[in-house]
Amino acid sequence: MLSHSQLRGIFPALVTPVNTDDTINEQAAENLFAWLKKQGVDGVVPLGGTGEYGSLSQRARVRFVELATKAFGGDIPIVPGVLDTGFYDAMGSACDFANAGADALLVITPYYTNPTQIGIRDYFLRFADESPIPILIYEIPYRTRISIDPTILHELSSHEKIIGMKACNTDMYHYLRVLAGVSLSFTVMSGEDSLFPLHVAAGAKGGIVVTANLFPKIWRHLFELARSGKISQAVEFHRELIPFLDLVFAETNPGPMKSVLDLVGVDAPRVLQPLRAAEPELQNALREETERLLRTYEMSDLSTL
């Protein structure tokens, strides 16, 4: 069973390559997995927001977890997202993904019903009790409109099957308060490409990183800088990524990023409704910046920097 100590390093939040009929593009998926294996990652997170969870059929979701497990299973953790709004649908997905080979689950804060903090606590406690595999809490208030109070996270962090969280709350003081009180058996992973070096400097053990689909080696280098205490260097290096980050998140993720994945051998630009492909002008600017970063960093020996 996966433990909190295995939540370390760079876990790309995977895009889901799809065909014109919205089924999984298995060849493109295999190409994505091959790219990530070649460049080096510590785990993968299929089916989060980047993976367009809400727009996929359950059959497609399960198939993508099966493909990821086939490619990576036993070597690195497979932690699919569970983004259903209600307990029974979410638990059904949890069981499906566990049967498909997942090692843990990234379970989103219950939303739409506007629960109280105690309701959130009780939801995660019940989910952890009934889940067949360990879970990570997925807090992303700019998507769910629900923020989890740090004291609730402190309490949840003591549950033996709640082993960590993906932190996407952009309020840095909230983030610092979370880290100040969570259990030693609970790992906080950064969920924000834009704040990653600061999150690691404050105590994150790694990150579930959107743009690590494209740049796993760049994010690994950034992580090593921040983890080793070279904070100024990490922040300076991160500044080099800001023009790219501004472009790749200029429209709703993952549309822009999918438009340039062919640059790393993954030709799967299609996004699922209600998303649309990025505007041509944005695609062109992003392609130019992505090519620059690939040429400058991803294909070079970063250890010499």
Class based on secondary structure composition and strand pairing: alpha/beta
Give me the side-by-side strand order of the main sheet: 2-3-4-5-6
Enter the CATH topology name: TIM Barrel
Assign the CATH class.
Alpha Beta
Order of helices and strands: EHHEHEHEHHEHEHEHHHHH
Count of DSSP helices? 13
Straight-line N-to-C gap = 37 Å
Tell me, briefly, the overall form.
globular
Please compute the radius of gyration using only Cα atoms.
18 Å
CATH architecture: Alpha-Beta Barrel
Total number of strands: 7
* CATH superfamily membership: Aldolase class I
Give short descriptive properties of this protein.
305 residues, alpha/beta, TIM Barrel, two-stranded parallel sheet, 13 helices, 7 strands, 10% strand
Fold topology:
Blueprint: E1 9-12, H1 26-39, H2 58-72, E2 81-82, H3 87-99, E3 105-108, H4 117-130, E4 135-139, H5 141-144, H6 150-156, E5 162-167, H7 172-181, E6 187-190, H8 196-202, E7 206-209, H9 216-227, H10 231-239, H11 242-248, H12 255-258, H13 280-298
Parallel strand pairs: 1-7, 2-3, 3-4, 4-5, 5-6
